[in-house]
Amino acid sequence: MAFQCEYSSMKQTTSSEHWSDRMPQGMDLEITNHPLTMRQVVNLVIAMDRLKGSQSEKVQSSEFRDEDLLNLLLENALDEQLVLELTEAAPPRGFTAIEPSQQCMLRDHQKRSMVLVKEAMGLHAIRLQGGTTDHEVSLNMSTYLDPRPSASAQPVALGIRGTKLYLSCTQKADRPTLHLEEVENTDDLKSISKDSDMVRFLFYRTDIGVSASSLVSALHSGWYISTATEDNLPVEVCLQSESRYRSFTILQG
């Protein structure tokens, strides 16, 4: 039986002869000049440890049975699977943006459009008539991987297309408020630590039924992006108990 170890820093001839003298009778060690991956190193160490331990009692001569090799490989595979499961279980430390962003428009429950009011640095919900739809805001919606994945909610950031303005939710006086903030370096939004104040730019999107979605602040849990019952009033955040519209249709384009 031959074991192949791909390790670049060992010389092919003298090293093989040196280790072959130490191998059990009937076994050889071959060394070639190729770099090892970390997984291959772990597998080799585990295999050699098995051979030195319980299996070494059986490998006293060339009578190394197929059953012995199969048992050794199965034990090694189980150990590797456990290591991989523990590694994959480690959660990410923050929110990571998924490229590319989605271009969309929001319409509230009354089919009103979102219009930018620059003087107030905010959005108003307005029922636009024919010929005035060019005032409607087009958004870039970026989706994120969540450090605490949820089956029903997806973290998103909402920026006004063609600008560096993004919706944010921050505390003001005794309650959170919705703002439009200018982000000088939009690369700062590609990866957001879950403990960073940049979380104010994130909202959890939850789809309701077939075509409606709600948007709740990731920083201030329970505060929804909402519109008033009257026309031409600011888009704000509210609690579920308040009499405002909290669902939106998200239109592509």
Question: Characteristics of this structure?
Answer:
alpha+beta; 3 helices; three-stranded antiparallel sheet; 16 strands; Trefoil (Acidic Fibroblast Growth Factor, subunit A); elongated; 253 residues; six-stranded antiparallel β-barrel
Structure in words:
It is a single chain. With 253 residues, the protein is of the alpha+beta class. It has a domain at 96-252: Trefoil (Acidic Fibroblast Growth Factor, subunit A) (Trefoil). 18% of the residues lie in helices and 38% in strands. The strands form five sheets. It has a six-stranded antiparallel barrel with strand order 3-6-7-11-12-16. Strands 4-5-14 form a three-stranded antiparallel β-sheet, with no helix packed on it. A two-stranded parallel sheet has the order 1-2. The N and C termini lie far apart (63 Å). Mean pLDDT is 79; it is low at 1-13 and 55-61. Pfam families: IL1.
Weakly predicted, low-confidence segments: 1-13, 55-61
**Helix run count:** 3
CATH architecture of the domain at 96-252: Trefoil
Per the CATH scheme, the topology name of the domain at 96-252 is: Trefoil (Acidic Fibroblast Growth Factor, subunit A)
Q: Give Rg in angstroms.
A: 30 Å
- Oligomer state equals single chain
Identify the strand order in the major beta sheet: 3-6-7-11-12-16
Percent helix: 10-25%
Which structural category fits the helices and strands? alpha+beta
